[in-house]
Amino acid sequence: MNIAVYQMDIVAGDPEANRQKVSRWLGEQELGSVDLVMLPEMWTTAYTLPELEDIAEDPADSEAIRFLQEAAKRYHVHMMGGSIAVKENGKVYNRAIAVDNTGELVYEYDKMHLVPMLNEPAYLNGGREPVKVFELDGIKMGVVICFDLRFPEIIRSLALQGCELLFIPAEWPDSRRSHWDVLSRARAVENQMYVVTCNRPGSYDGITFAGSSAFIDPWGSVLQKGSVEHEETLRETLDLSNVADVRKNVPVFDSRVPDLYE
Ligand SMILES: NC(=O)CCC(=O)C(=O)O
Question: Residue limits of the CN hydrolase domain (predicted)?
Fold first, then answer.
């Protein structure tokens, strides 16, 4: 699977400007051989938490979701559309969106772990639905959002559902970049899956973000990594047969003793 990650700086509080930005970027890419495009966390708004009450979108009538669906059809690519702020039944959620290359919305996930260090619990509601794998081109995939990376149990739950490829859209601060690097590799090693991350660079409201988006293989090798400071595009072709090979060579899943710890 050929994946293009847009390590995008985000215009704060301006969904229209961000849609235009992604639209321009898509138009500049040679997407002929690309199967899937990935965007970062909250790519329409950034972390403008006090404004989200007003600018989060109704998911039943969302410009951002329509945009992802149109882009998927136009460029014939699956869109791992990072996450966007949505408002449903009066509550704001940080929702990951996956759209297939026919424009069909195939999976949504509301970030369940809210970040105290960024004051998320004061403005957002945590998702209450367990994570599930979804399938594109016969590949079992999952998505968790940023802070979720610190909770190995949620990613193990995806692995036990057969997840081979995990996406992590993020707005991870540079002050904790060493955690980002170590934990994303650790999740790939312990679950023997590909991990693809898309973290924004740039700053907002006094926080500088870490960039450092990456492709990590099921052995834990970093195939490619984005810069800390700059916007950029990362592309990689993943050979999904490596997942089965690594799981055969180091049979972690066959060696589990869940009776003793679940
Ligand atoms: N956007 C986030 O979830 C940031 C997470 C974070 O700052 C951390 O885990 O550290």
Answer: 1-240
